[in-house]
Amino acid sequence: MDRKIEKKKWTPKKFVLLAAIGLFVFFILYNLVISESGSRLNVDLERITISTVQLGEFLEFIPVSGTVIPLRTIYLDAIEGGRVQKIHIEDGSFIEQGDTILTLTNNTLQLDVFNREAQILEQINNLQNTRLNLQQQRLQLRDRVLNHEYQMMNRKRMYNQNKELWEKNLISEREYLDSKEAYEQTVRQLDLVSETLRLDSLATENQLRHIESSLTRMMTNLELVQRSLDNLVLTAPVTGQLTSLNAEIGESKNRGERLGQIDILEGFRVRASIDEHYIARINIGQRGEFDFAGESYSLEITRVYPQVREGRFEVDMEFTDREPDNIRRGQTLRIRLALGALEEATLLARGGFFQRTGGQWVYVVSASGNQAIKRNIRLGRQNPQYFEIIEGLEPGERVITSSYDGFGDIDRLILR
What CATH number has the domain spanning 39-58+343-415? Predict the structure, then answer.
């Protein structure tokens, strides 16, 4: 007998299908409900700035302020102290080399100069007398040599005559021997006097050389002493502009005190002040740029001053090609000082977000543009326009770069 077989309601095939549908619904609910269950904040688009991450050339530089100064400056110091008697040229004037700038007076110095002149002249006179005495002494010795030579010639002639007469028995032997002994004695005396003259001449020559050297030094000292009074008159050592003169009539100035300076108007350089944080990265030859009267000009570091004062150090920079036409001493320039070479990098525009996040995270705008999600990033180098992105962002993504004040620790911003 046949039995009716009822159809089963929960077949394995239906169970698998229902399970798949359940997983799909769970996934949709997770994305729509669970993932959006974090903190959110509605933000008006008009209140924020959105920048696009881009791939471009990056140059790391810092902004510094520089002051225009002359390429060469000559400082005027008081060689001798004194009271300002007269000012011949006012500061700011253009002067020629040799122009008299001011005159000092110093009575004490004048008396001292007169006394020193007298002492030096007395020493010069003594040396000249000594030189004269040595020369006279040498002449006396030469005179003695001449006398002995004359005596020797006479006694030699007498000796020769007596010798002939003695050989002919016309004179006595005693008379002959006396003439011979007299001649030989004269020869010995002449040799002695000649040796004395030779030794004396050597000593005299050394003494005379020493005296001449001393006289030369004395004359030089005399000129220096006399020049001390000339130093009371300050004259321009070069042609230029007297940009400062620190003196008033009747004012007393000490020796070595700075009186003023002359700028040589043959060119300019720039002295810039830089934060000590960059001292290890600043070297001679680094370049900088600045804008002036609508044009861009280049500078190059030529000197680095290692002294740090109040957290800053200074560098001197010179123009690499040309100077601005209307630049003047004392002007302040805003310089972009390069810290490295031009490189390709992933860039994000600077903005107020950095003050809140320290560059550790940003809000990245979604592709739909209706929300921005918090994302961790890592920044590298920076310049006044861009941050270098090391990781966390890709070119083409959009980031909120305005200030994050008021957002708190919200994970997601809803943009309206």
Answer: 2.40.420.20
